[in-house]
Design goal:
Blueprint (H helix, E strand, L loop, with lengths): L1 H17 L5 E5 L4 E6 L2 E7 L19 E9 L7 E4 L2 E6 L10 E10 L7 H4 L2 E4 L15 E3 L1 H10 L5 E5 L3 H9 L13
Parallel strand pairs: 1-10, 8-9
Antiparallel strand pairs: 1-2, 2-3, 4-7, 4-10, 5-6, 5-7, 7-8
Helix pairs in contact: 1-4
C-alpha cells in the first residue's frame, strides 16, 4: 500500500511536470532547493528555506504543506527588489538583503492553493513562495510555513511561472523526484485516487 501511494504520488508529480510542456516547480524539503522544470528537465534551481516547524497543513502549525499545489495568484510584478509587503500590499519600504532586525515578506508573492486533501488549507493559511530579507538563512529550514527565496531568485521565478503553474513539494531529494517523475508516464491511470 505504501509503495502504491509513493508510485501514485510520483505519477502525480509526473502529470504536473509534463502537463502541456508548461513549466512546473518541484521543491525538495530534503535539499532545501526549488527546481523550475520544463518538459521533465530542470531548467533552473534555487536554494530555499521551508518551515522550521516541519511539514504539514494543520492551521496554526506554521508547517510547510506537502504534495501537489498550484499558483493561485501572483503579487508584486515590477516592484523593486526588497519591496516590503504587509497583508499582500506594498508598504513603500524597500529593504536590502540581510537588513538587521527585520523579517517581512519582500519582493514578490506567489500564493499557493493546495490540490490535495493533505494540503487543502494552504491557500487559507497564506502559504506563499516569497522573498525574504534574511537571505543568510536560505538553504536551511527557517520559515513559518512559506517557501522563502532570495529576492533576485523569487523575481526570476515570478517571471517564469503563471497562475495555474503546478508546484510539487516533496520530502525526497530534488534529483530523485524529477528522475522518478520523468520515468513515470502520466497516462498510467494512477494519480489522485492513490493519494
Amino acid at each position: 500500500m505504501k509503495l502504491l501511494h509513493f508510485f501514485g504520488f510520483t505519477c502525480l508529480i509526473a502529470t504536473a511536470l509534463h502537463a502541456s510542456g508548461a513549466p512546473a516547480v518541484v521543491i525538495s524539503i530534503a535539499d532545501q532547493k526549488l527546481a523550475l522544470v520544463e518538459d521533465g528537465a530542470p531548467i533552473a534551481q534555487f536554494p530555499v528555506s521551508t518551515s522550521k516547524f516541519g511539514v504539514g497543513d494543520r492551521p496554526g502549525s506554521y508547517a510547510t504543506p506537502l504534495g501537489l499545489l498550484e499558483i493561485a495568484s501572483k503579487i508584486g510584478e515590477n516592484a523593486p527588489l526588497g519591496t516590503v509587503f504587509k497583508s499582500r500590499i506594498q508598504t513603500g519600504e524597500v529593504l536590502r538583503p540581510n537588513a538587521r532586525g527585520r523579517d517581512p515578506i519582500v519582493t514578490r508573492i506567489i500564493w499557493l492553493r493546495g490540490l490535495e486533501k493533505r494540503n487543502a488549507s494552504a491557500y487559507d493559511r497564506g502559504i506563499y513562495i516569497h522573498g525574504t530579507p534574511v537571505e543568510r538563512l536560505i538553504g536551511r529550514p527557517a520559515s513559518y510555513g512559506c517557501i522563502r527565496m532570495r529576492s533576485r531568485d523569487v523575481a526570476h521565478l515570478f517571471n517564469a511561472v503563471t497562475v495555474g503553474t503546478r508546484i510539487a513539494v516533496v520530502t525526497c531529494h530534488l534529483r530523485d523526484a524529477i528522475a522518478r517523475a520523468s520515468s513515470c508516464r502520466p497516462s498510467t491511470g494512477l494519480g489522485l485516487a492513490s493519494n
